[in-house]
Each structure stands twice: as C-alpha cells, then as structure tokens.
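Thread: quick sanity check before group meeting

JM: Hey all, I'm pulling together slides for Thursday and realized we never actually wrote out the predicted structure for the chain we discussed last week. Dropping the sequence here so it's in one place. If anyone has concerns about the input, flag it before I start.
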Amino acid sequence: MNPLTALVERFAPAFQRTPTGVRVVDAAAARAAMPTLAELAALGQGPEKGAAQYLIRAAAQDLGIVPASIHDLYMARGRGEVAPTFTVPAINLRALPFLAARAVFRVMREIHAGPVIFEIARSEIGYTDQRPAEYAAEILAAAVVEEHHGPVFIQGDHFQLSAKRYAQDPDAEVQAVKDLIAEALRAGFFNIDIDASTLVDLSQPTVAEQQRVNYTRTAELTAYLRSIEPEGVTVSTGGEIGEVGGHNSTPEELRAFMDGYNATLAELAPGAAGLSKISVQTGTSHGGVVLPDGSLAQVKVDFETLRLLSRIAREEYGLAGAVQHGASTLPEEAFGKFVEYEACEVHLATNFMNILYNHMPADLKARIYAYLDEHHRHERKPDWTDEQFYYKTRKRALGPFKAEIWGLPAEVKARVYADWEEQFRRLFRLLGLTGTRGLVERYIRPVVVPPDLADYVGEATSAEDTSDLAD
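JM (edit): ok, ran it. Output follows.
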C-alpha cells in the first residue's frame, strides 16, 4: 500500500486523501495523531518517514498553520513603520524539536507573541541528523498540537560556505549551498541566512576588497534563491559581514558589504529583492567560552557597536537591522539590552541543549561521553580538561543518539519541557515580544505552498561533512 495512504488509514478518522493531497476531517483526532507522526517523521525509515513529514505539513496547512517569510515585517521595520522595540528570537532546536517547539508555541499564545523564528544551521543539519523536511515537520506538528494559527517562520541558519572546501573547489561548494537552499525551500523554509563570511580576506588592503568574495557569493546565492522561490513568496534573506568569534564588525565593513552586494545583485537579478537583515560580530562566540572547570566565561558584548550597525542597516539600507549570533549562553539580564540596542534578531541554541544534558540520565550521558572519546578525540585541544572537551563536542552526539533521546523516560522529558517553557517565557518577555502578535497579523500574509509528495518520499539526501561549519 502507498505509505501515505497507509498513514491516513492508520489515523482515521483524522485525515482524508484528496486528488491533490490530504485534508483534515477531524481536527481533534489530527492533534492526537501528531506525537506519533512527529516520532515517525524523525525516526521512521524510508518512504514512511517521508510520508509522515508530508502528512504533517499538509495537515498543518489545512488547519491554517502556514510556513511563511518574515520579510515584509522586517522591511516595514526598515522603513520605520515598525519601531525597534522588540528583538526576534531565532531558536535552534537541536534535540527533541517537537517537544521544545510545543513549549515555544504555548508561551507565544500566553503572551500574545508574534515574531518567533525556528531555525537550523547547515552544520546542525549534519550533526543532529535532521534534514530540512524533518525539522519543519517537527515544528509544524507542535503547532498543530498547540492549536497555533497563522504563519510559522522556519529558517535556514548559517547556510554557510566552508572556506576549506571553497579553496579546493569553489564551484562545487557554492553548488552544495544552492542544493541545500533548494531542499530547504521545498520543505517550507522561507527564511534563509546566507553566510559567506568565512570567505572574508583580511589580508586585502581595503575593506571593500576584504569583503568582495563575501558579497559576491552572497549576491549570487540570493539571485539563485529568488529564481526558485515559490510564486508569491519573498524569502527573508540575511547576509553576514563577520564570522562569529572573530573581530568585532565595523561600519566600514557593513557599508562595503552592502554597497558591493546591492550592486552585484542588481547585475545578476535586476529588480530582485535583496537582504532584510545583516549579521554582525559584537564579541560573542557560538556555544560560549567554556572554562577548565566546565563553567562559562563572561562575555562582554559591544552593545554600542550593535546599535550603531543596526541604525546604519535601517537608515542607510532599509534593512530591519543587525542580527546577534551566539547569545544563548549570555546572562539573562543581557537580553533586554538587545532590545535597548535595537538588534532586530538574536540567535539562541546552546543553552536549550544544555538544559537537556542537565536532565539526561547518567547512564545515557556516560555512553554519549564514551562515544565522544572514541569518535571525536581528534577535536580535543591539548590544554582542554574533560569538562571542556565534553561541553564543546557533545552536540555531535545528538544525531547518533537521536533515538535514545527520543526514548527518554516521560518524567525526564517533563522536567526538560518545564525548564524549556520557563526559559522561553523569560527570554520572550525580555526580548519585548509581549503583545506583538498584531504586528505579524498586520504585515504577514502567508502564501499556502502545497507540498509535493515526491519531495518527501523520493531518494534521501546524502549527509555531508559539516564539522568545520558554524552553528
């Protein structure tokens, strides 16, 4: 039997096959089916896994839950129509995304929050073993269970060019990112952050020359994205001027990048929409800086630079502002400052994973650490303690141990969920999201893009080595 038909029959009377796909017959039954479908979408095999991902998306859209682009809201902010009184959280859910996203949607409903982004980076797709269609399905399944309605912003974070592979074969590496963009669009990722900042060459004599390859490749990838984006959808697209963990970005770098990018995009795709935001470096690093005892070093964020670059991005280029990466391990009092200093978006990942590890049973954690000792000891620096090594590498166990993490006892998951929900509640309030639902309703008109079953049950995409890429 066709795998989709088998799933529809298995969960009767929730769904019904139609000539063009699937519709929801019983919304309550569809919500009840989502936990099982989400698990199949993550852990299933072959066509059944793809069919579960397709069924989740089709059902969500039939219930008014639509993958969408945040572009129009960001451009309204760039025009000055929307005040910079909130910062949009972009949340990387590396493990148990269905459970975590349920907590996000619950808090969003509680405080009437609108603009929240769910994202996954090219690197994370690799080490968490979550292709775009799987990740989107988990988020949409959570939205169904929590009775969300309206747009859902799903984003490709750090669709990054590897400097190492680019040096060996530039065209092949650019094509790899193009292929990922196409795959992500098919899955409902209508927000894409292109990151060619790895190609900035600080040995060049001028800032414009330093940024040339970065802005040229970013424009090329933008033009490609515009050529394949669904009709009626303008994908929100971001660029990056400085690799996170490097030196702090400057106004000269932002202007050199944007001027070169805009001119190049106008040549490659006249009239095409450009960027809606720009990522900058202000002193953070992905995952934080871990000390020998396993604690995290305090990071000094250059908030004045963040505000200056955000204002230049808005006032001179019409963008929403600057994006802050690597912030999830900062003290909570810092998050209100992202609003105060006008960041348009902040990316959060590591601390949600840390919460999971804090509650993980000792036997599973021991097996994970043994795996890291065997398979990732080459990443260990000579002066690292065990605490530093495990902290920096344990994200790489999320894919190999995905089934075991999904199978955690219910009481463990309940404790993780409670901590996640409380943290989302605190962070969203600090980021000024209370009462912002109306802004999304005003500016975002999501376009329903019917999924193609062939994209879900066809040949699986091969995994790639992403060990040298940023999160």
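AS: nice. The two ends are 40 Å apart (CA to CA). The mean pLDDT is 93.
JM: adding both to the slides.
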